[in-house]
Design goal:
alpha+beta; elongated
């Protein structure tokens, strides 16, 4: 079963199956006349950063900085100067038994290990329209035993 779960989680079509997120992003893009969907780029960047030895606090900070930078690049012209924009939901990497919203201070941070189940949450807002996204990954790409069953159950519930 763990090989099936591993294949499922890392299949490219699975990553881009966030229909609700994409609808929200398209609404923001249409409302502001842009096709810049950096929210998805931030998620892909966060997934790529979830490797063995990565510091959770550092990864969260890097993803938040990326979102902030992209927001100001995309919506930084004179026309959108008064436009409210920013991080709607700071990047959180909740590891294993941590239920959610883990974005630690540097002194409370932990390092990721192979086999850790990591729940990624992040989001931004543009003029009051929020786009949030979440994804679950297994560090090292292979889940076994109960971790594989939990990830498969979460996928089937989607």
């Amino acid at each position: 079963m763990s090989q099936m779960v591993s294949n499922l989680l890392f299949h490219p079509s699975f990553l881009f199956s966030y229909h609700d997120f994409r609808k929200s992003s398209q609404l923001i893009g249409v409302f502001h006349g842009t096709d810049h969907f950096f929210f998805l780029a931030a998620l892909v960047k966060a997934i790529a950063a979830c490797v063995e030895g990565a510091d959770v606090g550092t990864v969260c900070g890097q993803i938040d900085a990326f979102i902030d930078e992209e927001l100001h690049k995309t919506f930084g012209n004179k026309k959108s100067k008064k436009l409210e924009r920013g991080i709607a939901f700071p990047c959180c990497l909740s590891v294993n038994e941590i239920a959610g919203h883990f974005s630690p201070c540097p002194e409370d941070s932990i390092k990721l290990k192979n086999g850790d189940v990591v729940k990624i949450d992040l989001g931004a807002h543009i003029d009051g329209f929020a786009a949030l996204v979440a994804h679950t990954v297994v560090v090292g790409g292979k889940a076994e035993g109960k971790a594989a069953e939990v990830v498969l159950a979460a996928f089937n519930a989607f």
